[in-house]
Amino acid sequence: MKQNVYVQDIDTETCFRNVQTVTVNALAGIDNNAPDQAGLLQKAQAETERIEGLCK
Length: 56
What we know:
Elements: H1 12-27, H2 35-55
């Protein structure tokens, strides 16, 4: 059985800030292949996978 997962186990502030920045950049027309945007997308994907793993 999976242990309980608590919000403090996840850096929610950084995760939210990264998603917000990716969204604002996309709305501003910044391409996903731009180095900074690509890095943020990779971080967001890694966080998503980690959160999904904690929920299993």
